[in-house]
Design goal:
6-stranded mixed beta sheet; 30% helix; alpha/beta; Rossmann fold; globular; 4-stranded antiparallel beta sheet; ATP-binding; binds adenosine-5'-triphosphate
Amino acid sequence: MSVTPADVAVGLDHVHKTYGTHQPVVALDDVSAEFVRGTMTAVTGPSGSGKSTLLHCAAGLDRPGSGTVRIGGTDLSSMSEKRLTELRRSRVGFVFQAFNLVGALDVEQNILLPSRLSGRRPDPAWVAEVIGRVGLGDRLRHRPAQLSGGQQQRAAIARALVTRPDVIFCDEPTGALDSRAAADVLALLRSAVDEAGQTVVMVTHDPVAASCADRVLVLADGRIVRDVPQPAPERIPGHLTPRGSSRPVAIREG
Ligand SMILES: Nc1ncnc2c1ncn2[C@@H]1O[C@H](COP(=O)(O)OP(=O)(O)OP(=O)(O)O)[C@@H](O)[C@H]1O
């Protein structure tokens, strides 16, 4: 099936990124990739291969030295920092290994923070649905430090979902979690793709997480060295929603 420009949620075209000037490190070396709407892509590869740099450039958190990045057809290179921030707030969600919740705010305040920052009042019914999906209805008044790692990551996913972003970028979302909590997080990300049609781009070292994606990109030395569609389904944990299924994903409460 051919991909039209309208199908592309995020596109990188000949992206180069170098750090430092005296002894420059080439982090991305002529990377081109298209992330299709309504799909989950895992980006994997050895330490230092450029995964986080790719994610940061694709999400508009960092600017490439050359090449172009497009989100929903909008070229980020000519945008001012202010417009880039607005675009990130309205179109992009982030989930990080370290959760990045604000310790002084409770769960509900954390979940609503991106909406507050963008000055948009989210639909209360949608907020309730997101909170229900991540199974944190009875933890809304808790601070992040009072939650388990898995609960904190589910709060971070709710925070990413609440603005209904086109794309959710994840950097090692299961890296700090045990296997059960990781499975819950992967199920939530999968349902964002399969049920809400969102696009997930996930950096991961975890082969189980990668096997939940529709496609795996492997980086080495700043280049894409493999592009694997449909990784082996037998490696997908049995309790996750299979690709293409519309079955709801049950998340444990608590
Ligand atoms: N701020 C920086 N200054 C200098 N070099 C950097 C910087 N950030 C990354 N690098 C270098 O760029 C290269 C790619 O780094 P990057 O963090 O993207 O790799 P990674 O694949 O995500 O690694 P890991 O799996 O260890 O997180 C590495 O050689 C790294 O040392």
